[in-house]
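Incident log, support desk, overnight shift.

02:14 A customer reports that sequence design results differ from what the structure should imply. Their input is reproduced verbatim below. On-call engineer (initials T.W.) acknowledged and began investigating.
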């Protein structure tokens, strides 16, 4: 085993044997799952019944507003708005809904409350009034609302989106799933590069400030030390990621086995988020219904049936390693150039801007994953780790994927060489805060 191999072994074993690594590896899948489950559970537990006084001067909505478990209406016919407001302030009611006599022409109501009822409650009240108003106007026009609802149901279409290859064959494509998988993979790459790149930087700073590095470089070259540290931490990150994948799979399998063949509860309809996200109403089921309203043993097939999981995982590993090596070399150079972590801030921004930019642009790439902007951002090595992972679930031609990988390899080889020139000078510099001008000189330093 060469010197770089010994350094890699030391960095790897030192980190994986730490108690914090073992704990986070075991708890990681549970913590990530709880991020999605716990808030929803707490929201359900904290749901408060909203009791609303209704003053309807038009007499159109009395007894007609739809109630739920968390929303109750109390109609006060003949009571003035002022009298109802006094009752609101004195009694247990949460809000007062005032419907004026000219509601059919003005389409305006007022909701007064003592404590904010929340956006979901406001939406339910507004939607209930709209539905009742539509029903009333249909009856006045001689049109039965039930007939219209049935016509809508009978006229529903199911669009099967397929991507055609060069041979003219179509392959089913679920855009919603591709978007979710792509963004999730891109976010993981973004987080992992920052997380493990910072570990390299802190490790270099610790060895430099404790003067251990002076002993180490008496036996190895600075470049060998830098490469060993970067590669060792990369292997730690890769190990933790693979363990997270396996543990997550075991957790999902255990949950599915516990539920057996019971159906997964579909997404609750009638919420503001449904309208914001463009999900259709009950009369027109959304594409999510097909995904969620199925047995657990078929859920993964519906989610990932059109996506090549091996391709996604292998590409993720490659772009994680490639992106980490590219940015990790710069993190190591920053650690070598400074004496403490506080001094790193002035050098972090230029390095992290491309990574932050790629994360921001990922949202635009999703809207046009095969456009020229998406292509170039997935080829440029500073942005390709995130952008290519966002594009892959939508389908990327093999030549583009190979081009991106080749450019990324060339990119991290060049940046590692560049960072190594800064590292070999900065690792033995003490007591002085370097400037950008000095770093530029170090790049051309010969010695």
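02:41 Re-run completed on a clean worker. Output:
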């Amino acid at each position: 085993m060469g010197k770089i191999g010994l350094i890699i072994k030391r960095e790897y074993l030192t980190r994986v044997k730490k108690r914090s690594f073992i704990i986070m590896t075991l708890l990681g899948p549970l913590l990530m799952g709880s991020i999605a489950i716990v808030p929803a559970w707490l929201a359900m537990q904290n749901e408060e019944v909203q009791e609303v006084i209704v003053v309807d001067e038009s007499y159109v909505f009395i007894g007609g507003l739809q109630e739920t478990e968390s929303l109750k209406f109390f109609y006060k016919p003949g009571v003035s708005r002022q009298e109802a407001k006094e009752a609101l302030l004195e009694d247990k009611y949460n809000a007062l809904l005032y419907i004026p006599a000219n509601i059919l022409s003005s389409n305006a109501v007022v909701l007064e409350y003592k404590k904010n009822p929340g956006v979901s409650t406001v939406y339910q009240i507004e939607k209930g009034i709209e539905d009742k108003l539509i029903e009333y106007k249909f009856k006045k026009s001689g049109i039965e609302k039930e007939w219209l609802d049935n016509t809508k149901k009978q006229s529903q279409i199911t669009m099967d989106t397929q991507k055609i290859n060069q041979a003219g064959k179509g392959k089913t494509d679920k855009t919603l799933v591709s978007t979710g998988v792509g963004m999730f993979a891109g976010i993981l790459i973004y987080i992992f590069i920052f997380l493990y790149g910072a570990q390299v930087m802190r490790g270099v700073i610790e060895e430099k400030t404790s003067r251990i590095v002076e002993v180490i470089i008496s036996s190895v070259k600075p470049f060998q030390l830098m490469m060993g540290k970067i590669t060792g931490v990369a292997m730690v990150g890769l190990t933790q990621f693979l363990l997270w994948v396996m543990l997550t799979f075991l957790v999902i399998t255990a949950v599915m086995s516990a539920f057996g063949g019971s159906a997964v509860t579909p997404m609750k309809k009638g919420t503001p988020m449904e309208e914001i996200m463009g999900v259709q109403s009950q009369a027109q089921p959304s594409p999510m219904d097909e995904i969620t309203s199925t047995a657990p043993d078929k859920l993964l097939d519906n989610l990932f049936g059109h996506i090549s999981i091996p391709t996604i995982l292998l590409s993720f590993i490659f772009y994680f390693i490639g992106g980490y090596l590219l940015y990790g070399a710069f993190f190591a150079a920053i650690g070598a150039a400074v004496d403490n972590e506080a001094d790193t801030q002035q050098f972090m921004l230029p390095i992290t801007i491309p990574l932050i930019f790629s994360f921001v642009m990922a949202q635009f790439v999703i809207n046009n994953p095969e456009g020229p902007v998406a292509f170039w951002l997935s080829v440029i090595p500073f942005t390709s780790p995130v952008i290519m992972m966002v594009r892959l679930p939508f389908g990327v031609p093999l030549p583009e994927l190979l081009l991106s990988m080749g450019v990324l390899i060339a990119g991290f080889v060049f940046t590692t060489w560049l960072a190594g020139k800064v590292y070999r000078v900065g690792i033995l510099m003490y007591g002085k805060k370097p400037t950008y001008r000095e770093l530029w000189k170090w790049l051309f330093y010969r010695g």
